[in-house]
């Protein structure tokens, strides 16, 4: 017990230390990298939401983009209609998405495997057409989501992108820290039990359906936060910002990170941001045609996804742990 | 009255295309217990092969069988070199249940990227081989054009052929047997792996036909990111689930039902609700009858 507390405290300081490092790094790199950093932080939140759902409670969602959209629209509506402060927009996004998640989860808990995957996929395919129908959601153009300029106290040199980076990183750090603790709590253990052996879990007195709905709700809340962050970095919310490819990219990121542990989440997030750039430089070097340049990122991501599923199905982090154990 | 007839015709036509897609999902599900989310990508690829034939030989009639055959070859290839390895590799561990789903997703991405490599991301066009102007009765125009008639005839013929293969031939018997009880089939001397590959090939052919017909039924445009194909995937899946993922008859029934319901919603309620209707229909069926409207006897094993 004593150990647990100590590791809790050290983890907390670990997160703070990580935050300080981010702060220093954020100050020393150029604008583009800072912007990419904000995107990485957004992906960290989104991917961890999928890892929580898939890796810990065994439910698959191919339509997380839809939940991100709920968060993004929620934040933008709060900002535009009530002129709410930024933090309130994010909190609202989390709550709204979690509410949707609870509704979806109630249905999802009855489905399993491919049925759930297909249903969420259908949702992600249909989402743009649904969002297009409502006037107050701004149709095809969507809504503007402007969080305003960074506070003057941070100095004149403080750029908007750096402000995005700060907000996104802080949000990611807080949610990671909270999620770490949650997964080590009773709920985390219950979810893992359900994933490994849902019948045994039920026999042990766990209310499987209720726990699954809870997992879906928490996951949706995180997805909503990620959606608000995403909308912040691109300053708008529109159906086009949450395409099917986003949902697939998030699922890919989760698998590359290793769906069973939270530890690798940064791997997936960095990969998703880095791959377009890597693809670009490869295409440049070999002097590829326009067709190849456009499709190389997709090829790399999908190839990586398939290789991961084939060779390190539990993700690189878990694989390394496993190897160490074998050696000892 | 006339409007009801027209709506009915539109629904049956689109429903019959969804039926092909649903059948290809059911065939794959029955043979390998995988819901193949790459099905739309495979259909898209075979449609592009068809496009290439139309381009070179200027004949849709040649392109249709070419698309079907290439679809079959591609699907069989994927099953042989990819799915078999994958299912052997990841049959245990925490992500065993989602690995096939994720893998077919990766496959979808790969196929789209390949299409982009060779044909680019811009729209290409397949001219409809027959007139898309409806027949007219007196002063009114029927929503039944020669092209729609072709679709209906082609789909019914394919369904007849499939039924014949399944019910009257040895290979059809082997397909049914290895879907129902793979272990026993193996003992009875059926080469289950080979039969599975054949199931995938049939699915690929059905998908190729669906892609060619859907493109000609729509505006003829074709692109790797086409929404039509995402919708084909979603509606195919929904139709297959409505009918029951295990039943070919169910897939056809589910698809026609879905096509009709969507057509009536489109005409009488409005385009905005089409997708929501499909989604609600899916959820209702999943909650009320998870095994599908036409499911085989209880007691079948998953």
UniProtKB/TrEMBL annotation, chain A:
It is a multi-pass membrane protein. Keywords: Cell membrane, Membrane, Transmembrane, Transmembrane helix. The chain crosses the membrane at residues 12-29, 35-53, 60-78, 84-106, 113-131, 160-179, 213-234, 246-275, 296-313. Coiled coil: none annotated. It is found in: Cell membrane. Its main location: membrane. The keyword Membrane applies. One of its GO terms (cellular component) is plasma membrane. CDD domains: TM_PBP1_LivM_like. GO terms for molecular function: branched-chain amino acid transmembrane transporter activity. PANTHER family: HIGH-AFFINITY BRANCHED-CHAIN AMINO ACID TRANSPORT SYSTEM PERMEASE, HIGH-AFFINITY BRANCHED-CHAIN AMINO ACID TRANSPORT SYSTEM PERMEASE PROTEIN LIVM. This is Unannotated protein. It comes from freshwater metagenome.
UniProtKB/TrEMBL annotation, chain B:
The chain crosses the membrane at residues 6-27, 60-83, 95-119, 149-166, 194-214, 226-245, 252-269, 275-294. InterPro entries: ABC_transp_permease, BCAA_transport_permease. CDD domains: TM_PBP1_LivH_like. The keyword Protease does not apply. Signal peptide: none annotated. It is a multi-pass membrane protein. Belongs to the binding-protein-dependent transport system permease family. LivHM subfamily. This is Unannotated protein.
């Amino acid at each position: 017990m004593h150990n647990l507390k100590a590791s809790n405290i050290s983890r907390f300081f670990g997160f703070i230390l990580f935050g300080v490092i981010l702060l220093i790094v954020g100050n020393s790199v150029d604008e583009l990298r800072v912007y990419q950093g904000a995107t990485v932080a957004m992906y960290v939140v989104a991917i961890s939401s999928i890892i929580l759902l898939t890796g810990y409670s065994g439910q698959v969602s191919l339509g997380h983009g839809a939940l991100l959209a709920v968060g993004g629209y929620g934040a933008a509506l709060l900002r535009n209609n009530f002129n709410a402060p930024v933090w309130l927009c994010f909190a609202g996004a989390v709550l709204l998405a979690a509410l949707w998640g609870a509704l979806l989860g109630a249905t999802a808990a009855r489905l399993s495997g491919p049925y759930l995957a297909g249903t969420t996929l259908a949702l992600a395919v249909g989402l743009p057409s649904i969002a297009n129908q409502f006037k107050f959601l701004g149709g095809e153009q969507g809504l503007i989501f402007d969080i305003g300029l960074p506070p003057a106290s941070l100095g004149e040199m403080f750029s908007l992108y750096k402000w995005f980076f700060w907000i996104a990183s802080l949000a990611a750090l807080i949610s990671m820290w909270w999620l770490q603790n949650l997964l080590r709590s009773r709920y985390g253990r219950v979810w893992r039990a359900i994933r490994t052996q849902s019948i045994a879990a039920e026999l042990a007195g766990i209310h499987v359906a209720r726990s699954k709905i809870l997992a879906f709700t928490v996951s949706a809340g995180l997805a909503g936060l990620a959606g608000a962050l995403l909308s912040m970095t691109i300053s708008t919310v529109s159906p086009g910002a949450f395409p099917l490819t986003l949902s697939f990219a998030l699922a890919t990121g989760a698998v590359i990170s290793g769906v069973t542990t939270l530890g690798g989440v940064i791997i997936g997030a960095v990969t998703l941001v880095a791959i377009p750039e890597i693809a670009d430089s490869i295409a440049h070097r070999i002097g590829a045609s326009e067709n190849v340049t456009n499709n190389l990122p997709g090829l790399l991501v999908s190839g990586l996804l398939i290789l991961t599923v084939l060779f390190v199905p539990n993700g690189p982090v878990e694989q390394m742990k496993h190897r160490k154990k074998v050696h000892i | 009255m006339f409007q009801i007839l027209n709506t009915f015709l539109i629904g049956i036509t689109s429903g019959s295309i969804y039926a092909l897609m649903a059948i290809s999902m059911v065939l794959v599900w029955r043979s390998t217990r995988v819901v193949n989310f790459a099905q739309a990508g495979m259909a898209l690829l075979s449609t592009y092969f068809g496009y290439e034939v139309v381009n070179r030989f200027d004949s849709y009639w040649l392109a249709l069988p070419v698309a079907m055959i290439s679809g079959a070859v591609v699907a069989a290839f994927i099953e042989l070199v990819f799915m078999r390895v994958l299912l052997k590799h990841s049959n245990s561990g925490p992500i065993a249940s989602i690995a096939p789903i994720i893998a077919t997703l990766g496959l979808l991405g790969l196929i789209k990227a390949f299409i982009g490599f060779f044909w680019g991301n811009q729209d290409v066009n397949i001219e409809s081989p027959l007139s898309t102007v409806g027949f007219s009765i007196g002063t009114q125009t029927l929503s039944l054009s020669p092209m729609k008639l072709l679709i209906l005839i082609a789909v019914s013929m394919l369904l007849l052929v499939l039924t014949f293969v399944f019910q009257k031939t040895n290979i059809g018997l082997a397909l049914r047997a290895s879907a129902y009880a793979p272990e026993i089939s193996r003992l009875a001397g059926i080469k289950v792996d080979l039969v599975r590959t054949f199931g995938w090939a049939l699915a690929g052919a059905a998908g190729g036909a669906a892609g060619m017909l859907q493109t000609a039924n729509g505006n003829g445009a074709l692109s790797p990111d086409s929404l039509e194909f995402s919708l084909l995937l979603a509606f195919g899946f929904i139709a297959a689930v409505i009918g029951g993922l295990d039943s070919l008859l169910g897939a056809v029934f589910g698809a026609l039902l879905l096509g009709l319901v969507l057509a009536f919603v489109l005409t009488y309620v409005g385009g905005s609700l089409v997708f929501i209707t499909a989604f609600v229909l899916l959820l209702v069926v999943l909650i009320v009858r998870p095994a599908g409207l036409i499911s085989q006897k209880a007691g079948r094993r998953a």
